[in-house]
Amino acid sequence: MRTDTLTMPSPDMRRAMANAELGDDVFGEDPTVNRLQDVTADMFDKEAALFVSSGTMGNLLGLLVNARSGEELIADADSHVFLAEAGGAAALGGIQIMPVRTEGGIMEPEQVAQAIRPEDQHYPRTAAVTFENTHNRHGGIAWPLPALRAASQQARDGGIAVHIDGARIFNAAIAVRTDVKDFAACADTLTFCLSKGLGAPAGSILVGPHAKIAEAKRWRKMLGGGMRQIGVLAAAGLYALDHMVDRLAEDHANAKTLAEGLAEIKGIKLDLWRVQTNLVIFDINGISTAGFLDECKKRGLRADANGRTRVRFVTRYGIDAEDVQYALKVVSEVMGAA
What we know:
Blueprint: H1 11-18, H2 31-43, E1 48-52, H3 55-64, E2 72-76, H4 80-83, H5 88-93, E3 96-100, H6 109-115, E4 126-132, H7 145-157, E5 161-165, H8 169-176, H9 180-184, E6 189-193, E7 204-208, H10 210-222, H11 231-243, H12 248-262, E8 268-269, E9 279-284, H13 289-298, E10 304-305, E11 310-314, H14 321-337
Parallel strand pairs: 2-3, 2-4, 4-5, 5-6
Antiparallel strand pairs: 1-7, 6-7, 8-9, 9-11, 10-11
């Protein structure tokens, strides 16, 4: 239960990969990649799409095409872009990040307005804002569509671009019962992962207008991201979009059951409101995080730390209701012995 990137391709997905029609994608000649890009552009109601190797690359490209060296990007203080992407925006794009503290990862329009720099020679120019949906560090919270629209409109009124880190955007859409194109309408660019709950072995997609995707393709080449017969991975992505989206609701249900069980165990503090999708983050007392994780691992349950006293469990394809009950049994034993 460490992460949904551990999701393995199903047998049918592997067959789709083995049978993929291939070409050289650097020349734009891989038909399976081209089909994946066309399908996702249409799915998100954007002009174009680009297949990239990872969500980190997708986000980096999204920032590079929306901001320039010496400019500033507004981001949640607990966002993946700010905390967990190795400073790529600064190192490779010369882009400074303005971190903003939020409640639950939902940036209010007033916070966007206040973070936009006034025109002054002492300040970097604000070029863009990024929103994360669902929000990882805040426990998988999904943006309500009206809140995202309001924050996005504030950014546009302020003359800045919007990028959405939608690594788990399909989880968000299922949680708030909307279509991913409604989220995408709030952004200039959006990236999402095929390699998390959707089960593909690798790959992410960046969607946006033709001009920005063309620029992103050039940046991808500079970053060494041009790949050849990559249709073997694109085929997995196409299969994932056809067969793995609706089943994400099962992961959400399992996460809710897991969270409700954890909340009843002594020494665990958990905010059930935050468990909206497939992430369950909780605080532990009476045992160190390292000690807790080690004891769980001895019993066949692996999880991940999310701070000094916090632990994250993630439900995914391959984790079923029986696994959830086993996890609760293990945690109960570990906390009971602490």
